[in-house]
């Protein structure tokens, strides 16, 4: 009995060592492809992040008066209460027009190498200027934004505090910079970060199996880096084009930016953090089920069938990318004055 | 010199005493007409306020999925960032329709004796059911609201916690009760409350002069109580009807509720707390300047011309009604599931 007991102990210990070694190996492999979120805000190009700038940016982000109609703020389509997006196929904007593409999440967007589905904005400051002016979104003009801000003494004071060295702090450029600074704080550490950082208990067995599949099947060829995507461009339908509902023929993606035939139906690989909070999926927003989206990716991008069990495990892994949204105190905004341009909901 | 000095001291002392007496008299008179906000939430009829109910109500208040389109939450038209209203003439709602009347502030609304411009809802729970179903506002149905809530396990758990004794906690009635409980916390103590409570320094000289005018001119005949209004019905244009832009002939106010000829163009006296944050004014929302609104009230309701200086002082007093909005931590809402009804922006 004594011998048998020793033998059993030895087997158990060996198995445990093997498991530890396997976990260490999986983590090492994963760290070669993915990075955990940093513990501090990233530095921005030409835009020093200060507390004053963050607070101003938060006010602007939540202010519906930045739209011509007074209905939409940045937060309308990038709602911090619902995963940083709006849970619609494509957003509803000015005069009830429908936007052309699904609204991407603002959470962790600062870590994307470029913004928008086609990467046409280099950074969040450039991005912030887009929807404000888009006729189907906020339908405003830079001049009207500046006039609106200048009409409210509290905003002028906040701009002076956020841009203390500048002669004319209230500008459309600084509006965008303040929003960029605020958005850089919207970082959501997730169980996957804890696991990458060494916490073996942060992921379940199914999530670990999903991670292995995610790497072995080739998902991580496009969805890698700190945001598991957002850092490269790939044709949607690399192996097999999905149906016209999912990939509408009239939206050729990055082709509109580069005018290069090679970029036809090329899109930025979606960043996958908080993906289970941001249905529906793809630029068309036509797929509501994450599992279905995973399986479509298998056939269209990898030329492989992802079976039900595998898809469930990959989805389990993807839920480990859902992080903690930073606590946001809802702002109290400056009051209008007689100089404030009136809201206009008219179709322009 | 000694005598003169004594005399002067006596005069100064007498003047000071007279001022103190005048201040005490003014406060006593004011307390006969107005009440300071209480330091605790008011009790609600058939709706015990608990922390769980408040938190649930806050989530519902901010959740755009309570509207058919997924665009509008309670907070869209009663925005806590902008005085508890939306700063529009009349709100823009479902399918870009315009609402018939200016959106009133939700702040301190719990102290109104009835809700809406025509008082057609007895309390905030009844009120909360209105806009959700109104075709021009959120265009939803009670059945769809309940289906939406039931589809999200986190909401079901929150309802169970907020209504622990009930067999079917997820109901349209409880949806409204939770919102009512949350709204009962939206109370904004203002300098005028501090002054009513005995702080002589809380109001400026102009504000005190404005308060006296407000009482002497007769404004307080309708605008009295804790909310300086919200507790009685009066014909708009009692003495002289304002122009058709301000008082559109096709909106006969409380007549639609009571079908009594006497109630033609009768409206609930506007509660005046935070009034300088909630332009534009009147049920038509046609007047953007508070001073102009004060002067219109003089001619239409009191038959008296309120001159520029008087109007400025009354406006100064009204700004002393602007209070501190309670700190609101923006909620993180439950995620949808495959059972969640899809948003629909179609015109019904």
UniProtKB/TrEMBL annotation, chains A, B:
It is found in: Periplasm. It comes from the Bacteria. Pfam families: CCP_MauG (PF03150), Cytochrom_C (PF00034). Residues 1-23 form the signal peptide. One of its GO terms (cellular component) is periplasmic space. Heme c 1 binds at residues 74, 77-78, 94. GO terms for molecular function: cytochrome-c peroxidase activity; electron transfer activity; heme binding; metal ion binding. Heme c 2 binds at residues 219, 222-223, 297. Keywords: Electron transport, Heme, Iron, Metal-binding, Oxidoreductase, Periplasm, Peroxidase, Signal, Transport. Its EC number is 1.11.1.5. Its cofactor is heme. Binds 2 heme groups per subunit. SUPFAM superfamilies: Cytochrome c. Residues 52-183, 205-322 form the Cytochrome c domain. Its main location: periplasm. Binds 2 heme groups. This is Cytochrome c551 peroxidase. It comes from Pseudohaliea rubra DSM 19751. The lineage of its organism: Bacteria, Pseudomonadati, Pseudomonadota, Gammaproteobacteria, Cellvibrionales.
């Amino acid at each position: 009995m004594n011998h048998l007991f020793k033998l059993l102990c030895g087997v158990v210990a060996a198995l445990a060592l093997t498991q530890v070694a396997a976990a260490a190996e999986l983590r090492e492999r994963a760290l070669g492809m993915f990075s955990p979120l940093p513990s501090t805000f990233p530095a921005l190009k030409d835009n020093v992040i200060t507390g004053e700038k963050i607070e101003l940016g938060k006010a602007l982000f939540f202010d519906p008066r930045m739209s011509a109609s007074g209905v939409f703020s940045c937060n309308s389509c990038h709602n911090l209460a619902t995963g940083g997006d709006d849970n619609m196929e494509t957003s509803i904007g000015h005069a009830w027009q429908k936007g052309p593409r699904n609204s991407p999440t603002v959470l962790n967007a600062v870590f994307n190498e470029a913004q928008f589905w086609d990467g046409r904005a280099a950074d969040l400051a450039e991005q912030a200027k887009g929807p404000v002016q888009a006729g189907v979104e906020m339908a405003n003009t830079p001049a009207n934004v500046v006039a609106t801000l200048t009409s409210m003494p509290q905003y002028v004071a906040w701009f002076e505090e956020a841009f203390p060295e500048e002669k004319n702090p209230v500008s459309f450029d600084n509006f965008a910079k303040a929003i960029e600074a605020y958005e850089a704080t919207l970082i959501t550490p997730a169980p996957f970060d804890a696991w990458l950082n060494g916490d073996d208990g942060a992921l379940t067995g199914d999530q670990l199996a999903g991670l292995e599949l995610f790497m072995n099947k080739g998902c991580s060829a496009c969805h890698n880096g700190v945001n598991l995507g957002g850092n490269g461009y790939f044709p949607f339908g690399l192996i097999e084009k999905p149906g016209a509902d999912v990939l509408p023929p009239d939206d050729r993606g990055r082709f509109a930016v580069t005018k290069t035939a090679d970029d036809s139906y090329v899109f930025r690989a979606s960043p996958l953090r908080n993906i289970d909070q941001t249905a529906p999926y793809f630029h068309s927003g036509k797929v509501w089920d994450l599992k279905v989206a995973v399986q479509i990716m298998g056939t269209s991008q990898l030329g492989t069938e992802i079976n039900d069990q595998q898809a469930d495990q990959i989805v389990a892994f993807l839920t480990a990318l859902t992080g903690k949204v930073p606590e946001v105190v809802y702002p109290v905004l400056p009051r209008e004055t007689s100089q404030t341009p009136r809201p206009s909901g008219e179709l322009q």
